[in-house]
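Troubleshooting: if your tokenizer reports a length mismatch, compare against these two reference records.
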Amino acid sequence: MSRIKLNGMEFYAFHGCFSEERAIGTHFRLDVSFETDTKKAQQTDNIADTISYLDVYQVVKREMSVPSHLLEHVGERICSALLSGFPAMESVTVRVSKLNPPLGGQLESVTVEVTKDRIR
């Protein structure tokens, strides 16, 4: 089993509890890590024998374009979409960070981490 990570993906999206956040949007950073068996790809050096990072990125990008009130919901949606779209993915962790959240003070980010395992 191997763990593959996509780190520091950045998106401008419209997630938040406040109507202003959903109207004007803000910046988000995401990290995704997942476990999959890469033994065959390690031998063949063929992308068809593993999970394509590009395909994972495209799923994350698509899900980030769907507005949500809560980061927890965004993380759950991305985890579910990845497990659904990639049968070889055994587990996935998504870290969603809202940069400079409007909390009335200086704060770099707020992060929610969601982990889901495939139920066999």
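Reference record two:
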Amino acid sequence: MILPISKLPVKVLRKPVVNVELPADKKMLRLIKDMIATCKAADGVGLAAPQIGQNLNLAIIYLEEAGLPAFPIINPVIIKTSKETTEMEEGCLSTPGLFGKVKRPKKITIEAYNVEGEKFTITDDTFLARVIQHEIDHLKNTLIIDKFEEITTGKELLKKYQDK
């Protein structure tokens, strides 16, 4: 099922998340499946639970076009970042039409859990690292508008997306 995507200034995007209890139950597995379908339908590369109105510590990474199957990161934590940074234009499904340059660490290491409750680690310095950081930002109530170095498209939309 395709879920509605929360857009600013909806408050759930700024609400603290709670950890997901594991192993995932049927309801959580259904939510993950629906989040993957929603991300795909929206032509996104990632989707965090707050973006579909759930204050859960859960995000979907959807990079199938890059040859990576869609997968959830549950209760993720960034445990290491590189000093080297990269800057790239980013957009967000929760702020449609607004794009800007965001500087992020080039390489990260995260720990997260799968649906069975097994811990896994990802270390990456490709586009995957950027997507994971963007989604984990959502889980920390941080949005790209908080990180823009420069707005590249949609500057006139910024006031619309400011928290009220």
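Descriptive notes for reference record two:
- The longest strand covers residues 71-81.
- The mean pLDDT is 95.
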